[in-house]
Amino acid sequence: MTRGNESGPTIDPAEDRRRRFPYPADRRRFPYPADPRAALRTGCVLLAFALMIAGWSGLLVVVAGQVVPGWALAGAVLVVPVVVRLIRAKAPVTDGTGPSWVRTLLSTLATTVTALGVLLGAAADTAATYHVLEPAGPDGCRAVVREVSFLFAGSGDVYAVGSLGVGRRMGSWTADDGYQPIASGTYRLEWHADGGLLTVGGRNTDPVMSDIGTITC
C-alpha cells in the first residue's frame, strides 16, 4: 500500500530560532549586558563612582591651568548614564525583555550614592579656593593649593601635579580666624633638585600650623 505525502505544520525560521536560542536564557547565561547602551551606562556609573571616591581621597586634575576637583569629574561622567537612561525609558522594548531587577537596583544604588557624593563634594567646595602656584618646578611639576576659610577656621591642602595634569595631596595646614596665607600672599615656594618646598606663614594674631612635606611629582 502506498502511503500518501504527509505534511506537518509550517514553522517560521525566526520562531524556530527563538525556540532553540531563547534570548532571556542567553541573558541569564552571560552576566554582561547585551544592549550597548546598558553597557555604556554601567561603565559610566562605575567610572563616576570611582572618580567620586578618588575625589574624596584627594584627586584633582588641572586642565589648561584650571583646577577640576574629583567630584566635578564624577558629576560630568554621571551625566552620561542619566541621559542614556532617559533615552532608554522612551525607547520601545522590541524583544519583550528588559534589564533584570538586580542590575537595575545595583545601577540605581550606585548612581544615587555617586550623585550624593558629588553634591557633598560641591557643597564642601563652596568655601574653597584653588590656586595654581608659580613658579613651576622641574619637568613641569606644579604646586596646586586648595584653600578654605569658614567662620573662624582656615585650612589648606597642597597637591603635586605632574605633566599629565593629575594631582595628589602632599600636605596640609590649618590657620586661626579663617586666615588664608596663599590669598594673602604670605607664602614662599622654592624648587630644588629633590622637589618643591612650600612655606606658609600667618600673622601675629593668626598663626598657621603647617604639615607640608617635599612636593614631588
What does this structure look like?
- The chain folds into 2 domains: 13-124; 128-212.
- 39% of the residues lie in helices and 27% in strands.
- It contains 6 helices and 9 strands.
- The radius of gyration is 28 Å and the shape is elongated.
- 25% of the residues are buried.
Task: List strands and helices in order, with pairings.
Layout (H helix, E strand, L loop, with lengths): L12 H8 L2 H7 L6 H21 L3 E4 L2 E4 H21 L10 H24 L3 E5 L9 E9 L2 E9 L4 E11 L4 H4 L2 E6 L2 E6 L7 E5 L5
Antiparallel strand pairs: 1-2, 1-6, 3-4, 4-5, 5-6, 6-9, 7-8
Task: State the gist of this model.
With 217 residues, the protein is α+β, with helices and mostly antiparallel strands. Helices cover 39% and strands 27% of the residues.
Features:
single chain; Ig-like domain-containing protein; 6 helices; seven-stranded antiparallel β-sheet; 217 residues; transmembrane; two-stranded antiparallel ribbon; membrane
SSE order, one letter for each helix or strand? HHHEEHHEEEEHEEE
| Cα shape | elongated
Tell me the number of strands: 9
Number of helices: 6
Structural class by sheet pairing and helices:
alpha+beta
The amount of helix comes to 25-40%
Average pLDDT for all residues:
79
Largest sheet: 7 strands, antiparallel
Distance between the termini: 95 Å
How large, in whole angstroms, is the Cα Rg? 28 Å
**Percent of residues in beta strands?**
25-35%
- Uncertain residue ranges: 25-33
Number of domains: 2
